[in-house]
Structure formats: structure tokens, C-alpha cells
């Protein structure tokens, strides 16, 4: 008997259901077992978002906590060309905000790509304007940007950081390991709309910011130095200039001004020569400023006394078939007058009295021919040849500041030896390193390198150098009410075309300290290739005076000539 | 009765589990909103810090002082250091401290 139709229908229905379940089961096994690994990866890719997190770069502040460099998150703008209906219209709208030509933006937006940068690290003001005009196919991400709020102030010391946030020059480069923020990769969970739900792991917590640096620099002293240097540059139309102010007792750098200046906020269009720290990298022949050092060596070795009589050869002396001139024809003068009148012949005779080995030993002891080891990059060691390589005139030449190359930083360190009683200090610019919470990680204290001369010799040389300002070539460095000690220098530059001393290119300089009886500031002023007057006493000494008097006022340093007031009685 | 109770407990456990998951997601969104708010506030703080640092730059202050208030740098001799009173006035041997005075403020000084 054939089955009833209802049984057949039930059987067919069962078969269909079984087949259906079979298909579902097969698909289930296929998805969950056979393709499990591949699909898990795909799902993770859709639900998880891996982001690279970086802590903010540390700030740099002056010795009073004034901000000199800091980081801020600013928007960078990208486009999704495939999502744009009208690239031309979008480019026209964005152009004034991004300050990029519309044609340039349109070119980028017409590319056959799904992502293109339109502008990186905008100004905060640009970011705010952009936020008020949301556009389809245009997005922003936040990136850390380095700001130097004081513009060109201290630019050659601070240096700058690149687009990727890494330090490229100056302190930014030297202290990169401290300044950069912690880098971390984190995995975030996101929903179907792409919104972040919650972090998958602990790594998504904010990464630590970089360490902050406290400098020995004083923003106000730096400003005064830069302002006065710029004024001198305008007046002398010089090629370049340098002013360094040190605390001679500690070696702490108070100011380092270099001209021409640059703004570290916009370095893209500049050449490396513009941001070179000439105070450390450029060695020059110091000329007569070297006589202060030679005098210290001669007094320490007792080959000269301040009152020792030296014959000035009436301004002309032949050494090794070459003639040395003095600008003033001197007869018999004291050793102190040799320095005060900046006699080349007297200096040459002093050097010869010392002898090459002793002179070389003292020049080394004062730090010439070697780096000062200041915590800034790119420092040169200058040029000090071994005596065995000296010519017949070298002893005389070096004694008057020729045949030797020094950096301004070396020279101001050396003059600090005379100021502080005979000790060579290591110059430094960073005094503290702190973490993001302000906890002190590292304190840099003044560091003694060595004793070079006795305190008594330092006092004697100081007294002679005071005479340079009161009765000698450095009269324009005199600061009313203060005792100033210093030495002028005017050095001919080597003409690179002829290899001989140029008759038109000079370096005028003044190096000294004030107050001479209790020095608070050691300073060097170097004016490179001034036009017209080129004597150090005329182009550099006035800068010393103007910077010195303003800074002494600012520091509240007492004058040597105090004004005594009658006691106020209350009656008028 | 026991079976019904077991089923009820099972259902409750499922609800608790589901509620916990949903609440976690809700909290996740909340945390993200707060994080975003924090970022905006930090940006605002940093912007203000940059603005303060820019406005307090010495060259700007000097320019404002000169252009807006007509101030000039004191000429040599106009700022003097004086011995402050007690040690000298009383004749005692106390150490004198220093005060800074502009000459214009000195009683009887040149004006």
C-alpha cells in the first residue's frame, strides 16, 4: 500500500528541513572551524583599532621658570579624495584657512588615493576656524607641535625640533633623550560606527610626557644682550656678531646672543648657516684679547711684574724676518702699560720671556685647543698647535693673538678664570631636569675643571685689566659707578682668496668682567667684519657697557659709588 | 517547582551577564567622551600657556612700555644703589641691606 499523501509531505518537509539544517550546520562549521583563524583576524581588524600614542615633548624654561619652548596638540588636515564630490570647490573653501594655494590643494584632492595630507600642524587659530566648517571628505587628527613663544629669543641655544617631533639642533638635539615623550602602541575596541568603546589593554593609558629642562639662562639678560647686539650690528653693518654672558663664579651661562637671528618656529626656508651656533662652532684669531691670558701666565711664572720695564722698540720690531708694528710708538713702558696700551711688541717679548713650552702649557690650562664641554652640540675645540709645529714667529704671534683659533665660548671661559680667582669652570646651560610631574630628576651643579693661576695672580691681572678700561683701549666699556676689567681685541681675518691677512676684514672684540672687585658677569662681545670702524674698543666695548649697565641694574648689583641718603624725618 | 526556580535563576544570570556587558559598553562610551573633553581642555590650557608666554616676551613688553606708556631706559646714573637706613642711621653695626631707588624718587634728589 502506497503511503498516504500526508506522510509523503511530512517526509519531504523533514528532508527539506534536514537539508536546511545541514546547510546551516555546514556553514557554521565552515565559519567557526575551517575559516576560524582567517575570520578572527578580519573581525579583529574591524573591531580593533591600533593607535600609536606619544607623550608630549618636555618644556624648556629659563632660570625663573619662563617658558621658552613647549608642545601643544594642534590639528593636521587630511583629505579623502575618493569621498569628495567637488575637489575644486573644497580646495577653494580650504585655501584661505590653510594658507595654501587652491590650485595646490585641488591637485592633491584629485589624486587617486584614499588618504592625502593637506596641511600638517596648523596654528591653533587655523584649527579653530577649521572646526567651524566641517566638510565631507576632509578630516583632522591632532599632532604635537613645538612652539617657541619668544620667537627668535635664544634660538641658537634652543635649536628646534623637526616635523616628527625629534630635536634637530641646539638643546632640543642635545637633550633629545630627556625631552621626547614616551612612545606606545595601544589597541582600542570600536563599534560598528567606528566609535571607540574602550581600550583593550592598559597600554592605552596616556603615555608619559618628556622631561622638562630648566636653563641657567635669564630671559631678560638674554633679551638685553640680543637687543644691544642687534643695535651694534645695524650701526656697524657687520657680517655677524656674538655676545656671551657667563656667571664667572659658577660657569652658568646667563645669555648667548648671536646675530643674524632666526625664528625657530619657521626654519623651513632657512639654510643651516643661519642656525649655526657661532659662539661654539666658529674659531677666530682673537687678536689682542689673548694678551690678557699671556699676561696672566707671565705673572704666574714671575717672568714679569706689573712694574717691569719693557722697551716698546718705538713701535717696530723685526722677528724672523717679519716686522711687528704697534699702533702707538712706545719707548720704555711698564708691563701693565704693555697690556693697557695693547702693545704687540710688548706681548711678543712677554711670550718670548715665557718660552714656547710654558706658554703652550698655560694656553692649554686656560682651555684653549679643547672643547669647553658645555652641554650644547657642535662645539669646536679651536686651533692650538703643538710647539713642535710652531714656526720661528709663532711664539710672538700667539702672544698677540695670531696663529691660534679660539671660540668665543673658550675666550669668555678663560677670562672667567681671571674673574673668579684663578679657577677654570665648566660652562653649562641646563641646571635641572624634571619629570612631567615636576619632580627633580637631575640637578647640574657648577663644576670645577682645574686651578689655572693663583688668586693673587688673578687679582694682579684684574688690576691691570681695569687700567685697560680706565686708561687704555677699552675706555668705551666703562660703566659709571662700577669697576670694569677687560681687554679689547682687533684681529685681521685671513682672506680665503690670498691666504694672507686681509687689510679690510677684521674681527673686533671685547672680553671682560664686572664689577672687577666682585665679578658678577663675565662677557665677550665679538663683532665679525664691521664696516668702517673696526677696532674692538670702538665696536665691541660699547656693547659691553650697554649690556653690562642694564644687567647690573636688573640684578640689583650695588655700585662702587653708593649714594648716601639723609634719613627721612617725616617733616617736609 | 524546583525546576522552575532553576530556570528563573538561569534567566536572571543571563540577564545579569547581558546587563553587565551593555553597561561596560555604555561606560566605555562615557570614558571616551570624558577623554575627548580632557583633550579639549588640555588644548585650551596649552593655548593659554603659549599665549601668556608670547605676551610676556621681554621685547613685546619693552615695546609696549616705550610706545604705549612712553617709558625709557634709565640713563647712566639715574638708578643708584643706596645703603638702606638702619645700620647707618642708628649707628649700630648691623649689616646694611641694599635697596634700589630711581634718582627721581630720592628725597631731595634731582627731578
Question: What is the CATH superfamily of the largest domain in chain A?
Answer: DD-peptidase/beta-lactamase superfamily
Give the C-alpha Rg of chain B: 36 Å
CATH names the topology of the largest domain in chain A as: Beta-lactamase
Estimate what percentage of residues of chain A fall within beta strands. 15-25%
Tell me the number of strands of chain B.
Answer: 2
Largest sheet of chain A: 7 strands, mixed
Oligomer: heterodimer
> What's the CATH first level of the largest domain in chain A?
Alpha Beta
Radius of gyration of chain A: 35 Å
- Spatial gap, N to C terminus of chain A: 143 Å
Task: Look at the helices and sheets of chain A and give the structural class.
Answer: alpha+beta
The termini of chain B sit apart by: 107 Å
Overall pLDDT confidence of chain B = 77
Which sequence of SSEs, written as H and E, runs from N to C of chain B? HHEHE
Rounded mean pLDDT score of chain A:
90
What is the count of helical runs of chain A? 20
Number of separate helices of chain B: 3
Low-confidence stretches of chain A: 565-572
Number of strands of chain A: 23
Beta-strand content bin of chain B: 5-15%
Indicate the overall shape of chain B.
Answer: rod-shaped
Amino acid at each position: 500500500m502506497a503511503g498516504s499523501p500526508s506522510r509523503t509531505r511530512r517526509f519531504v518537509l523533514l528532508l527539506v528541513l534536514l537539508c536546511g539544517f545541514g546547510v546551516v550546520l555546514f556553514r557554521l562549521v565552515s565559519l567557526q572551524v575551517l575559516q576560524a583563524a582567517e575570520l578572527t583576524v578580519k573581525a579583529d581588524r574591524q573591531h580593533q583599532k591600533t593607535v600609536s600614542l606619544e607623550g608630549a615633548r618636555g618644556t624648556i624654561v629659563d632660570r625663573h621658570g619662563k617658558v621658552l619652548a613647549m608642545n601643544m596638540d594642534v590639528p593636521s588636515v587630511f583629505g579623502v579624495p575618493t569621498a569628495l564630490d567637488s575637489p575644486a570647490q573644497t580646495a577653494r573653501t580650504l585655501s584661505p584657512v590653510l594658507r595654501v594655494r587652491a590650485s595646490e590643494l585641488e591637485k592633491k584632492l584629485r589624486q587617486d588615493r584614499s588618504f592625502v595630507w593637506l596641511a600638517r600642524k596648523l596654528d591653533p587659530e587655523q584649527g579653530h576656524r577649521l572646526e567651524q566648517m566641517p566638510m565631507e571628505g576632509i578630516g583632522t587628527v591632532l599632532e604635537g607641535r613645538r612652539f617657541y613663544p619668544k620667537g627668535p629669543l635664544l634660538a641658537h641655544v634652543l635649536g628646534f625640533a623637526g616635523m616628527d617631533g625629534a630635536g634637530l639642533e641646539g638643546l632640543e638635539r642635545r637633550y633629545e633623550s630627556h625631552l621626547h615623550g614616551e612612545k606606545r602602541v595601544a589597541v582600542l575596541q570600536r563599534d560598528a560606527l567606528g566609535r571607540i568603546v574602550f581600550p583593550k589593554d592598559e597600554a592605552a593609558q596616556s603615555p608619559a610626557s618628556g622631561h622638562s629642562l630648566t636653563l641657567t639662562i635669564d630671559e631678560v639678560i638674554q633679551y638685553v644682550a640680543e637687543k644691544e647686539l642687534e643695535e651694534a650690528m645695524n650701526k656697524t653693518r657687520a657680517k655677524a656678531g656674538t655676545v656671551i654672558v657667563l656667571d664667572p663664579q659658577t660657569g652658568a651661562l646667563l645669555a648667548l646672543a648671536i646675530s643674524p637671528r632666526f625664528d625657530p618656529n619657521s626654519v623651513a626656508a632657512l639654510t643651516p648657516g643661519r642656525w649655526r651656533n657661532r659662539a661654539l662652532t666658529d674659531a677666530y684669531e682673537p687678536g689682542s684679547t689673548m694678551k690678557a691670558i699671556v699676561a696672566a701666565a707671565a705673572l704666574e711664572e714671575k717672568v714679569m711684574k706689573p712694574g717691569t720695564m719693557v722697551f716698546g722698540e718705538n713701535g717696530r720690531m723685526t722677528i724672523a724676518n717679519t716686522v711687528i708694528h704697534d699702533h702707538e710708538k712706545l719707548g720704555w713702558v711698564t708691563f701693565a702699560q704693555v697690556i693697557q696700551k695693547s702693545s704687540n711688541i710688548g706681548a711678543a717679548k712677554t711670550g718670548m720671556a715665557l718660552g714656547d713650552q710654558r706658554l703652550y702649557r698655560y694656553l692649554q690650562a686656560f682651555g684653549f685647543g679643547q672643547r669647553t664641554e658645555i652641554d650644547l652640540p657642535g662645539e669646536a675645540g679651536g686651533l692650538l698647535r703643538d710647539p713642535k709645529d710652531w714656526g720661528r714667529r709663532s711664539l710672538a704671534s700667539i702672544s698677540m693673538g695670531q696663529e691660534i683659533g679660539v671660540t668665543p665660548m673658550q675666550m669668555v671661559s678663560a677670562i672667567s678664570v681671571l674673574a673668579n680667582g684663578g679657577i677654570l669652570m665648566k660652562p653649562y646651560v641646563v641646571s635641572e631636569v624634571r619629570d612631567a610631574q615636576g619632580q627633580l630628576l637631575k640637578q647640574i651643579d657648577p663644576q670645577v675643571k682645574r686651578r689655572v693661576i693663583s688668586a693673587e695672580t688673578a687679582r694682579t691681572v684684574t688690576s691691570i685689566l681695569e687700567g685697560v678700561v680706565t686708561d687704555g683701549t677699552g675706555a668705551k666699556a666703562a660703566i659709571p659707578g662700577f669697576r670694569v676689567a677687560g681687554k679689547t681685541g682687533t684681529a685681521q681675518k685671513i682672506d680665503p682668496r690670498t691666504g694672507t691677512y686681509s687689510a679690510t676684514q677684521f674681527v673686533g672684540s671685547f672680553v671682560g668682567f664686572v664689577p672687577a672687585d666682585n665679578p658678577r658677569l663675565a662677557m665677550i662681545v665679538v663683532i665679525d667684519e664691521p664696516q668702517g670702524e673696526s677696532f674692538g674698543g670702538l665696536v665691541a666695548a660699547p656693547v659691553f657697557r650697554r649690556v653690562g649697565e642694564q644687567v647690573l641694574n636688573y640684578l640689583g648689583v650695588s655700585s662702587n659709588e653708593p649714594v648716601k641718603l639723609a634719613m627721612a624725618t617725616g617733616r617736609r | 517547582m524546583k525546576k522552575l526556580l532553576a530556570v528563573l535563576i538561569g534567566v536572571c544570570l543571563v540577564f545579569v551577564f547581558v546587563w553587565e556587558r551593555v553597561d561596560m559598553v555604555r561606560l566605555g562610551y562615557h570614558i571616551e567622551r570624558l577623554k575627548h573633553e580632557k583633550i579639549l581642555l588640555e588644548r585650551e590650557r596649552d593655548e593659554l600657556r603659549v599665549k601668556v608666554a608670547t605676551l610676556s616676551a621681554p621685547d613685546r613688553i619693552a615695546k609696549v612700555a616705550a610706545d604705549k606708556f612712553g617709558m625709557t631706559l634709565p640713563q647712566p646714573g639715574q638708578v643708584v644703589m643706596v645703603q638702606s637706613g638702619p645700620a647707618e642711621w642708628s649707628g649700630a653695626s648691623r649689616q646694611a641691606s641694599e635697596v634700589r631707588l630711581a634718582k627721581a624718587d630720592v628725597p631731595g634728589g634731582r627731578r
